[in-house]
Every structure is written in structure tokens, then in C-alpha cells.
Specification:
four-stranded parallel sheet, about 15% strand, alpha/beta, Rossmann fold, binds 1,3-dihydroxyacetonephosphate, globular, about 45% helix, 3 domains, about 300 residues, binds iron/sulfur cluster, single chain
């Protein structure tokens, strides 16, 4: 451990207790952040954990849209994003104004918004989805056609698993798009007997080559259950922390050096301590936006969870 790190961790833990605060870390956060968080998980599970807890303060180690979702679901709590500049380039690819133009072109067509969107965009959408439930959410709608935002890769993937007519916005995750088919073919050739699991934010040609496609939470389950001893993982590097800890007998390979989300890596222990002690970098959502955004999140939460 770095010199001073133990003291830093001690101070954070003491402050969390003193302030009745809960520390959440997304599955892509730095190892040292995941190691001390009260809960690690995917974006939606963490926001739900924030809403369910009786903490007064939520320290959300992730990116801006995730802290915003927590603020939408738990308006009575103070939600701290330790690095206020930690955004998600994909969420920033569509604004509420741009979405309104698309809505006006398609009267009566419901908008399905991936949770990787701003609160203002969620407020304009009919229903939200995550990478774990996107096809179920689309199928739950009575409309024949849907418009999905902002990820072209997740949308195309869902379009292959539903009978609905789908159109979508042309956004993407720069991190997942850095993974190419050439990377997969090379790592597969070097590791006979391995299996390849990837996130649906990967490109269609990468997805077509995968043995299994799922959200970050789905990957922990897949890793636990597969008989394969070597697993190639097509998502952000931070996922390795828990995969390795939970499966000591298995080998995990990240197939490209590009699978690092710079925004997810911004937050360090010093940021957590500083933001919590000063209670700064509070994420809030205007009430008129929040009540509309929560409606689209709640419609998603009402979809039966048989996935
Ligand atoms: P999860 O919804 O699986 O947590 O993923 C969020 C994300 O940002 C993926 O790149
Ligand atoms: Fe956004 Fe991609 Fe980073 Fe996830 S990995 S937070 S989608 S940029």
C-alpha cells in the first residue's frame, strides 16, 4: 500500500460513519475505490441502493449521469460526485433539444432511453432501460415502433432480439468502440479453449463474435457459472477487480489496451476524502425535470424482472 494510503482510508471510513454517508462505486472504478466502497455494482443497482438506504449522504464514485439517477430516485439525500468533471461522453452525445427534434418527427413513438443519459433527456423519454434489461423493456411496450437513445450499438443489438420496428440515435461509447474484431481474433488464437463475453456497447462485429453478451452485473454471474477457465472480457478494465477476487481459479483477459474509460478513472481516494469532508460537488436535478425523469425510471422498474 502507498505511504499514507492507510491513513487516508481510515479518515474516509471515519467520515462516512460520522456523517451517516454511504459510499458507492461503479464496477469500472479504480481498485482502491472499489475496495473500500460499501457497495459496488452497475449504474442502476447503485442508484437503487442509494434510494433504499437510510444514509443522509451518498458518495457516488462513478460518472455524472449515475449520480444524477441517484438524485432523481433519492431527492432527500445529498448526492456527492467526488469528481464533478467525471462525465460520460456517450450520455453527452444527445441533448434534450436534439431529442425533442427526433420526438417531433415521430409522433406517438415511445422513446426508450438507456440510463446513460442526462436527467433532462430522461425527462423527455417514455421509459428508461439498462444494458441488462433493454430488450425486455422494448418488448414490454404496446407500440409497434420505438426510438432508442443514445447508443447505436446497444440499439442495434436489441433490434436483433425484438420484433418491434426500431430506429435509434447515432451515439456510442468511445471506450467500448476501441475494441475491434482483430483484437478478439488475436486473443482467441492465443488462448485456445477461452470464451469471450462482451458488453452490448461494443460494435456489432465484436458482438457477433461473442459467446455471451451482457451487462457488467451479468458478467460476474457468467464468470461464476462458466466451465471455461479463461475468459476474455469485452468491457472496461475496472471489471477485473471483482472478477479476479470472486474467481481465483480463473484467468481473465482484457483484449485491448483501449478498454479504459478515462472518466471512470478520474476519482481517487483523495477526491473522496475532500468532497466528503467539505460536502462539495453535490449533484442536484431541478424538481420539474426530476418528476418527469423519475416517471421514465419507474416505468422501467415496473417491467417484470424475469431476466
Ligand atoms: P452498466 O449499466 O452495466 O453499469 O454500464 C454502465 C456503463 O457506463 C457501461 O459503459
Ligand atoms: Fe460512458 Fe463508455 Fe465510460 Fe460507460 S465506459 S461511462 S458508456 S464513456
Amino acid at each position: 500500500m502507498r505511504e499514507g494510503v492507510e491513513e487516508l482510508i481510515g479518515e474516509i471510513k471515519a467520515l462516512l460513519k460520522e456523517k451517516n454517508a454511504l459510499m458507492l462505486a461503479h464496477n469500472y472504478q479504480r481498485d482502491e475505490i472499489q475496495a473500500i466502497a460499501d457497495i459496488t455494482g452497475d449504474s442502476l443497482a447503485l442508484s437503487q441502493a442509494a434510494a433504499d438506504s437510510d444514509a443522509d449522504i451518498i458518495v457516488f464514485c462513478g460518472v455524472h449521469f449515475m449520480a444524477e439517477s441517484a438524485a432523481i430516485l433519492a431527492p432527500e439525500k445529498k448526492v456527492i460526485l467526488p469528481r464533478y468533471d467525471a462525465g460520460c461522453p456517450m450520455a453527452d452525445m444527445i441533448t434534450a433539444e436534439q431529442l425533442q427534434v427526433e420526438i417531433d418527427k415521430r409522433p406517438g413513438v415511445p422513446v426508450v432511453a438507456y440510463v446513460n443519459t442526462s436527467a433532462a433527456v430522461k425527462a423527455l423519454s417514455y421509459i428508461c432501460c439498462t444494458s441488462a434489461n433493454a430488450a425486455h423493456v422494448v418488448d414490454s411496450l404496446t407500440a409497434e415502433s420505438v426510438y432508442m437513445i443514445p447508443d447505436r450499438n446497444l440499439s442495434e443489438y436489441v433490434s436483433h432480439h425484438t420484433k418491434k420496428k426500431m430506429e435509434w440515435w447515432d451515439g456510442y461509447c468511445p471506450t467500448h468502440e476501441r475494441l475491434t474484431l482483430a483484437h478478439i481474433l488475436q486473443v482467441r488464437a492465443e488462448n485456445p479453449g477461452s470464451v469471450f463475453v462482451c458488453h452490448p456497447e461494443c460494435t456489432p462485429e465484436v458482438i457477433d463474435n461473442a459467446d455471451y453478451v451482457c451487462s457488467t452485473s451479468g458478467m460476474y454471474k457468467f464468470a461464476r457459472e462458466t466451465e471455461a477457465k479463461t475468459i476474455i472480457v469485452g468491457t472496461e478494465l475496472g471489471i477485473l477487480y471483482r472478477l479476479k477476487k470472486e474467481n481465483p481459479g480463473k484467468k481473465f483477459i482484457i483484449p485491448s489496451e483501449g478498454l479504459i474509460c478515462p472518466n471512470m478513472k478520474l476519482t481517487n481516494l483523495e477526491d473522496v476524502l475532500e468532497s466528503l469532508s467539505e460536502e462539495k460537488n453535490i449533484v442536484t436535478v431541478p424538481e420539474e425535470v426530476r418528476v418527469k425523469a423519475i416517471a421514465s425510471l419507474e416505468r422501467m422498474l415496473a417491467v417484470p424482472r424475469d431476466y
